[in-house]
Design a protein that fits this description.
Blueprint (H helix, E strand, L loop, with lengths): L2 E7 L8 H13 L4 E7 L26 H10 L3 E7 L7 H8 L9 E8 L5 H13 L3 E2 L4 E4 L14 H26 L1
Parallel strand pairs: 1-2, 1-3, 3-4, 4-5, 4-6
Length: 191
């Protein structure tokens, strides 16, 4: 069973480390025989502020198919699972990521999500705690395993990816968990 996994780069800031981490995870996920992984960089998706009228139901959310938001909806709906790569800013996650999540409802539904975070001593764990709550409200399936990269004392290879093999071990466990849930959820959505 082919599984489409979207790797979302959650930061749009200049000098961000998230793109290197996302490309690292993209490579690890793409090494899996059944996975078709795709990088979804929010810099490439400058969505306008979410502006649907309060009280709008998920069924009422629709965008013109040729609009940026319509193309975003189509891209997200086509995925079977997600890995969100996010920094932690001021104990939270970036506004651009929240906006991208809020733009859809049905496209996220019943799809697993895993998290790779980065930041100070907590390695972005506080941002992930908040994202888990949002994912549950969107009816996503957040997986237990995650990767939290501590930037204090961080050592990277020439591409900006973690040198410590512990990060790769944690990433492989996270991807294993995500793919197990992706298969189960895809079968459920198809039936």
């Amino acid at each position: 069973m082919e599984l489409r996994v979207g790797i979302i780069v959650g930061s749009v800031r200049e000098g961000r480390r998230g793109e290197a981490f996302a490309r690292w995870i993209l490579g690890l996920a793409s090494d899996r025989r059944e996975v078709k992984a795709e990088l979804l960089d929010l810099k490439d998706w400058p969505l306008p502020s979410y502006s649907f009228r309060e009280g709008t139901t998920a069924a009422e959310q629709s965008y013109p198919p040729d609009s940026l938001a319509g193309r975003w909806a189509k891209k997200i709906t086509a995925q079977d699972a997600f890995i969100i790569v996010t920094p932690e800013y001021n104990h939270g996650y970036p506004g651009a990521l929240k906006n991208a999540l809020d733009h859809l409802s049905a496209g996220w539904r019943h799809k697993p999500v895993a998290f790779v975070s980065y930041g100070g001593f907590a390695g972005g764990a506080r941002a992930v705690e908040q994202l888990r709550l949002v994912a549950i409200e969107l009816r996503m399936v957040p997986v237990r395993d995650e990767v939290n990269v501590k930037l204090v004392g961080f050592e990277a290879d020439e591409r900006g990816r973690p040198s410590d093999p512990l990060y790769a071990k944690r990433a492989e466990a996270m991807i294993d968990d995500l793919l197990w849930w992706a298969r189960v959820a895809k079968q459920g959505r198809e039936s």
